[in-house]
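For reproducibility, we list the full input for the Palmitoyl-CoA complex.
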Amino acid sequence: MSEQNSRGGDDAYEHHGGFPVYEPVKAGPNFGRFVDVFRRLQDLAVSTHAPDDVVDQAIAQAEALGDLLEPYKVGEGKSPAGFNVDIPGRGSLLLPPWTIEKFDADGVRERGHFRRYHLGGNGAVHGGTIPLLFDDLFGMVIHASGRPIARTGYLHVNYRKITPLWDELVVEGRVDSVDGRKAFCSAELRDLDGTVLADSEALMIELLPGQP
Ligand SMILES: CCCCCCCCCCCCCCCC(=O)SCCNC(=O)CCNC(=O)[C@H](O)C(C)(C)COP(=O)(O)OP(=O)(O)OC[C@H]1O[C@@H](n2cnc3c(N)ncnc32)[C@H](O)[C@@H]1OP(=O)(O)O
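The corresponding predicted structure, in tokenized form, follows.
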């Protein structure tokens, strides 16, 4: 099917700027557990104070695990990490473990929580993690709106309240207006009482053919 872009082109290459056309990478049945166990290790790596001999054993076991996985390294777009919408955080350890609830032209909503790995100071989520959540959401908002691939021009975040670890939260965003290549987007992060913890505005700029 041809894809119409905002410049009136219907060329699938233009729709993707300078990006290759990625295909979904199907994960095996164990991949969700694989991601979960690494999330647990991320939490433990930043929340333990083990005796040095235990640290030494952990290093040996982690190196053995690295040796097991190393032969299976693949290039960008070839791993199921980041491409599986059924797995929290799309199966990417970079992303917080949030699940997509709504994905359509009106916007995208995700639900999830932050973990110990995402700790900033005094029990609150790290202030750098929240723009990550919004930035990824805006990428999905563009995808869901059917617009050509875009990169973030700017991302503004207002931190309204302390964002807690572990509590279930909801983030929702949408395209508010479009001006040529520019899509102006907004989103809010809320707790389950509806209190806004942070909100964000971003400019997502459609890539020209060949732009990386
Ligand atoms: C298969 C299953 C999939 C599942 C579903 C997956 C969905 C998939 C999710 C992906 C989720 C990841 C999403 C991450 C998204 C990033 O985080 S991208 C990484 C961060 N962003 C970047 O690295 C961008 C770096 N910047 C650039 O590359 C270039 O600046 C850009 C964006 C290509 C634009 O450059 P350019 O083409 O030269 O454009 P330029 O003429 O400068 O600007 C165009 C217009 O925008 C305006 N503009 C540009 N910058 C700004 C600014 N900062 N402020 C205001 N106006 C600006 C200009 O004034 C101009 O306006 P007009 O004159 O047209 O009115």
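The chain has one domain: 12-206. Confidence is low (pLDDT under 50) at residues 1-10. Both points were considered when choosing residues for closer inspection.
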